[in-house]
Amino acid sequence: MPAIPLSEFKTAQWIWYDRLDWNVYNAYMEAYLDFDLPSVSDRADILITADSRYRLWINGQSVCRGPARGYQDQWPVDSVNIAPYLRTGKNRLSVIVHSYGIELYYYVHGSRAGLLIAGEIGGLDISTGKQWRVRRAPGYKLVTARLSLQQGFQEHFDSRTRKMDEDAPGLDPAADGWRAPHCEPVGVMPWHAFETRDVPLLKEEIVLPQSLASTAETRTLAVASQSENVLAPFVDEPWKWRRPADELIIVKSENEFRIQVPESKKKSTKKKPVARAFVFDFGTEVVGSAILDIAGTGLSGATADILVTEGLQPDGLTPVLLRPEEHCRVSMGGRLILSDGRTRHEFFHYFGFRYLVLIIRDADGAFDAGIQLRTVDYDLDIRAAFQSSDERLNGIWSISERTQRACMQDAYVD
Question: Other C-beta atoms within 10 Å of 85: how many?
């Protein structure tokens, strides 16, 4: 791929909330920069990258995620035109960075983490440096289970650490912990050179489940909500799956899929709390990050676990989820610890799946839950077409096209 001269980063510095080689294991950093623009033009290009991964918001709108997969000796950098997200007057760039801090099947760890942005907008230098503000992102649990032997970590987030109106990182400068970053110059180890990403920025859009496939309720152990692996207690709990009951209300519109859940007929005890589960069917294979929006009273400290899977058992109700100690310890899921009132959270990492299982623990009262998915897809331009009198062949074509889309990210994935 074409190399990017270091001179493109002449005023930019790598930034982190600590030394670049400290506190990098399963660590999340939030960073933001406020700036004023007298006017907005059609082009406002910036260069952005991070080790390991970043997500970028501008004025509360999700812009992109990256960088593409690569190696530190030629680290990939994204070129992004952010003009469509800017406005006259006050603007805010917000970034959240996640550092794996370990070797993965698709990532080589260089013992350091950081964020790097270079760019000039309307004569204003917005490059990363001392003018930025950073903090270790509050709410993310450090010690969680791995998604599998080959992959990173489950994301466990405690929403009680931030106010509800913070719907994107960096939107509350009055919150605790913000400070000037630790900075190091471009050219520092292990990133000696840069290259442009070899695929386009991944395409994002919001999609909704197509239906609610099944529900279940059980009594469980109190320790289930404390497990480092959200899958581990689930596979041993005595779930009895059924079609959604009439008292459960489903509200579906063009922009929303919500369920309104009545108060449980069972009552939690200190040792045996109630857990309720819901299987959402997206109708086809999807790839993206889940967005939960859960509201109710008495929810503070309750947990909303998510698990994802490809299929259901022959009964059409029971999700196919195996014990984590089997099959490469695959444990695709995450946890959101709820606040009282309303909690909205978008998970940083994304999965490929068809069915999403939502498990609400330690909440007996009525609540409602909205589910969305921010998809992550290669912007594939399908130019070929196929049509046959044999519907089986048409089905094979359709499946093959969807498989191609689902398996193309910043690299081919299985």
Answer: 19
Please give the structure tokens belonging to residue 154. 């489950």
Question: What's the burial of 311, exposed, middle or buried (CB within 10 Å: 0-12/13-18/19+)?
Answer: exposed
- Residue 161: partners with Cβ closer than 8 Å, 6 or more residues away: 138, 139
Question: How does 388-397 read in b/e, with b if 16+ C-beta sit within 10 Å?
Answer: eeeeeeeeee
- pTM of this prediction exceeds 0.90: yes
- In this predicted model, what pLDDT tens digit does every residue of 81-111 receive, in sequence order? 999 999 999 999 999 999 999 999 999 999 9
> DSSP letters of 304-328?
EEEEEES-B-TTSSSB----TTSGG
Burial of 314 (C-beta count, 10 Å sphere; 0-12/13-18/19+): exposed
* 338-364 tens-digit pLDDT: 999 999 999 999 999 999 999 999 998
CA distances to 4, 6, 27, 51, 95 from 75, in Å: 10, 12, 20, 9, 19
Q: List Cβ neighbours of 323 (8 Å cut-off, separation of 6 or more).
A: 231, 232, 235
Distance CA 85, CA 43 (A): 11
Are 346 and 289 within 8 A, CB to CB? Answer: yes
